[in-house]
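Human: Respectfully, please carefully check these tokens:
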Amino acid sequence: MEAVGAIIRGRRVLVSGAGGSIGSEITRQVASFEPASLILLDHDETHLHDLLSELDARQPVELALTDIRDQDGIFSVFTRYRPDVVFHAAAHKHVDVMEVHPEEALRTNIIGTANLTDAAVATGVERFVLISTDKAVRPKSVMGASKWFAEQIVRSVDGGCVFCAVRFGNVLGSRGSVIPTFLRQIERGGPVTVTHRDMARYFMSIPEAVLLVMQAAALSRGGEVFTLDMGDPVNIVELARRLIRLSGRVPGRDIPIDFIGIRPGEKLVEDVVDPADESVPSDHPSIVVSKPPQPDRPLLRQAMRELERLAQAGQGNELAARMKSLAYERFHAPAVEVGP
């Protein structure tokens, strides 16, 4: 944590999606390291208002009520506040919703990330950490594909700013996560709904997730993808049974468990690290680091324009399919042949 303090103390730190579950915890953790200022960026005024009330009134805080999809607005924020360190947590995250709204995944997760990345490069940001997801590994969903593309965008930057990505599993207690959902269903008397008997997920707590973000910011030299060693995946049916028992009731008798089928874009078990990625040593025993080949920036931007054209034409199904297929293409510049 000394290394974390060294990159935050006395620096200007911007958190996008600052009012969300992860963004607000990043904000609280960053505040404890005495930054010169905290720039809290979110498009939801209520989230910003609530977060501000939690912070020490003596903490130097700037509020940026801005949507990351607004390129001019983002450049204005970065030009005005000149952050040194950026934690990019703003994103759409719900797999089932993004399957039917791929244009929103494109505009927020891909174009929004590009806006932040471009502004960071233009204004001299020193470190930039993208919050990603294990669903970005060999993605099957629109959400996962959009986060995979966001990873490529930040890792395509060469020189100047140190960019990296941090992949989470499912975060316990975050908005819309499975445990609060199960608890609400149990309180109503059931049923608890599970998609498949073999469905399993990797879990981490919000403090664990944010600790990983902080460590990644300190460890990064540029272009890495960091993942927390989360142990073995947890079977979701067993998780539901445990929660029912903890509530003092009997699974299947007092509270039924219904299987509703796998939703579009879901996997039975998520991958954590792409086996095709090169693993590199880590200075932290619980952090897995990989360094995929650096993507070619012009090729990425060309693909992004293709996706924008599909969205503008209202071709949602084609957009969703193309986003998923892009994650299996190589965005590396062709090798330049050198003559004898």
